[in-house]
Amino acid sequence: MATLTTPQVSAVAVKDNREKMLDRAMSRHQYSGDALIEVLHTAQELYGFLSPELLKSIAHKLRLPPSRVLGVATFYHFFSLKPKGEHTFVVCLGTACYVAGGLGLIGRLEHRCAKSGQTTPDGKVSVETARCIGSCGLAPAVIYDGKVMARVTPEGIETELDKIGVK
Amino acid sequence: MTTEELFAKQTEEQARQQSLKNRILCCTAAGCVSCGADSLRHALSTEIEAQGKAGSVEVCGTGCMGLCGRGPLVYSTADRKLYGGVTAENAPALVSDNELDRMALAPNAVDLEMPFFSKQVKIVLANSGRVDPEKLNDYIAVGGYQSLAKALEEMNPRQVAEEIKKSGLRGRGGAGYPTGLKWELVAKQVPTTKYVVCNADEGDPGAFMDRSVLEGDPHRVLEGMAIAGYAVGARQGYIYVRGEYGLAIQRLQTAIKQAEREHLLGSRILEQGFQFRIDLRIGAGAFVCGEETALIASIEGKRGQPRQRPPYPPAKGLWGAPTLINNVETFANVPTIIERGAEWFAGIGTPSSKGTKVFALAGKIANPGLIEVPMGATLRQILFEIGGGVKGQKLKAAQTGGPSGGCIPEELLDTPVDYESLAKIGSIMGSGGLIVMDDTSCMVDVARFFMEFCMDESCGKCIPCRAGTLQMHDILERITSGQATDEDLEMLKSLATLLQETSLCGLGQTAPNPVVSTLKYFGEEYAAHIHEKRCPAGHCQMQPAEQEVTA
Q1: Structural domains in chain B, sorted by start
Q2: Nearest 5°: phi and psi at B183?
Q3: Which CATH number fits domain A87-163: 3.40.50.880, 3.40.30.10, 1.10.287.90, 3.40.630.30?
Q4: CB B495 within 8 A of CB B468
Q5: Does the pLDDT of residue A84 top 90, yes or no?
Q6: Fewest CB atoms within 10 Å of the CB: A151, B111, B231, B336?
Q7: Is A98 on the interface with B (CB under 8 A)?
Q8: Shortest Cα distance, chain A CAs vs residue B238, angstroms
Q9: What is the predicted pLDDT for the residue at B318?
């Protein structure tokens, strides 16, 4: 599981508009601890990932123990405690995609970029896997920067990587 | 909106649609969008302007039309034809009313008489591909919210629950608990604060039915939930939807807003005394949250870990209040049952399993896509008549029920699809994912794949599941890399029984199912791996050093 040794968000960055937007989300739920997951969703949308400072500040505002906030943030796959790369490839490894060769796609990405679940050192590409994105008719599928690519081949991955200049 | 206004709106919208020369329905479900439906839709709008037909031709986005393998799909009301593989180049012909222009479309026409369409019976998917999920008026035009009106005006809550009970509807999430009975249980509870929860945390790999229903016809689910709220006496509903389903979330949010504005949800529904609000709760990627008590914990903002039952959610659920939890597809059946009556619904299906079931066909099959068949249809009919048979190689197994289900061999394909028959052969109905595997799939590796899934998704609360799935996965890993012995196989079998009997929730109890069913029907493949160090499908790498890297 992810740990708390993550890059820090500068104190200045936290003070910008995003803080206000996050506050608004919390007040919409009357700062109730029940809304923790909703608040974490909003926080991740705003900041891209959940830094230790961010988690602590959410815990404080929702009057929850920090352990509970960290516990929830690490329980769910959706929340990321590390910043994501500029581009993200999510390879679906649901049954249909697995049977159709999803592993080969992961292999190619791991070969050229980073291990699954990690980001290249230059912060360019994150490689992730998903358990099933519900696009089984299009297997094997990859979500590339939020867009579903259908019937992907390892060569198709190569082409995309070349386009964004990955060596 | 009052009931009279609802009917007036329906007439008005129907008249408007009929006055148009052509309505071009463009499938904008995930499958078609990924092969270019959005740009096609845009091209169609531009073309309508270009041909100066803004008043007589209209283009609408709809939900899934089913035949995902032939996308992008477009249906034209002018000639009542479905076209597949349509591109922007076809736009002028689709908009045109000139016979000669339209001739160019002939190669794209999809035969609506083919078994893929003719063998289906649509209840849940009746509007999918026919209405624009982002327009309330479209849903009202096909009779939407009239079942809610009928329930509120002509029936008391008890009669509604009674009607659902008589229909024989059973939970479509997989377990098949009689829906009417569950409704009565919640209705009988004394506390006045009750909740209705829609389980849209469709986590089974290989299943996309709920997603398609939510994306294609969100108002149907909202109406079903409101009727349930009326029957059990709840004023608040939640839809717990997977965070991965961005489009479904967006369409649900739009639909809820529209319904509230027209007083079809919220306070004073249809200007009557009944009030019912629906809020969304977005899941965060935990398979175990499909289990009802884990789902409740997650809505409460906690880690999604299940708890001991009883008490069951109908007695003590969300925040300790009586809670009705049903699956998306179950709620989607409700408006039609109220509209057409319990007898009509009970006339479809088998004596113990009534109605229809939606399946998501995927894997090595000619027509991957979304289908709805009456209960009791055989797997062979589904796969070969509707699905068009296996692509290329010979069919080896059909997998139903995801990681909780089993692999069904070719010789058992004549099994009718109903809850009991599938359970008898060691699989489950599950939520409806149906994946076809051919000779190139190794069944031991498939079992390993599902075990890895359950191991990763185990919430860690109870030991049999947390440690058992890990041990079983280890053994399967050894088998697929040619390092296992007969003792390992014995251990695998005994662990399977242990997990089934002692795990806290459904995840652990059913996790061994894929192993048990593949052992039963494909035992020789295990033997080949163990004794001959050989993978009959040629899939597994038998040198340990070259093991596949898995996530």
Answers
A1: 18-113 (3.40.30.10), 143-346 (3.40.50.11540), 357-438 (3.10.20.600), 443-546 (1.20.1440.230)
A2: -60, -45
A3: 3.40.30.10
A4: yes
A5: no
A6: B111
A7: yes
A8: 13
A9: 97
Reduce the secondary structure of B125-147 to three states and give it as a string.
CCCCCCCCCCCHHHHHHCCCCHH
Helix or strand or coil: residue A135?
coil
CB contact under 8 A, B34 and A150: yes
The CATH architecture that domain A11-75 belongs to is Orthogonal Bundle (1.10)
How does pLDDT run across B225-256, given as a tens digit for each residue?
999 999 999 999 999 999 888 889 999 999 99
The complex's ipTM?
Answer: 0.88
Closest to B284 (Cβ–Cβ): which among A76, A106, A136? A76
What SS3 state is found at B240? strand
Residues of A in contact with B244 (CB under 8 A): 130, 133-134
Strand B57-62: give its sheet, edge to edge: B57-62, B22-27, B74-76, B81-83, B109-110
SS3 B116: helix
Average pLDDT of A115-127?
Answer: 90
Show which of residues 248-307 on chain B sit within 8 Å of chain A, judged by CB atoms.
Answer: 281-287, 298-304
Residue B385 per-residue DSSP state: I
Whether B285 sits inside 8 A of A96 (CB atoms) is no
d(CA B457, nearest CA chain A) in Å: 10
Q: Where in chain A is the domain with CATH 3.40.30.10?
A: 87-163
- Give the global pTM: 0.92
Across the interface, whether the CB atoms of A37 and B301 are under 8 A apart is answered: yes
> Which one of B202, B286, B441 has the shortest CB-CB distance to A99?
B441
Nearest to A160 by CA among A98, A91, A80: A91
Residue of A nearest to B548 (CA): A103
- A160 with A144: CB under 8 angstroms? yes
Other Cβ atoms less than 10 A from the Cβ of A87: the count is: 20
- Alpha helices per DSSP H over B347-462: 379-380, 419-424, 443-457
Choose, out of A64, A138, A142, the residue to mutate when testing the contact with B (most B CBs < 10 Å): A138
For B24-62, how does the pLDDT look when each residue is reduced to its tens digit (9 = 90+)?
999 998 788 878 899 999 999 999 999 999 999 999 999
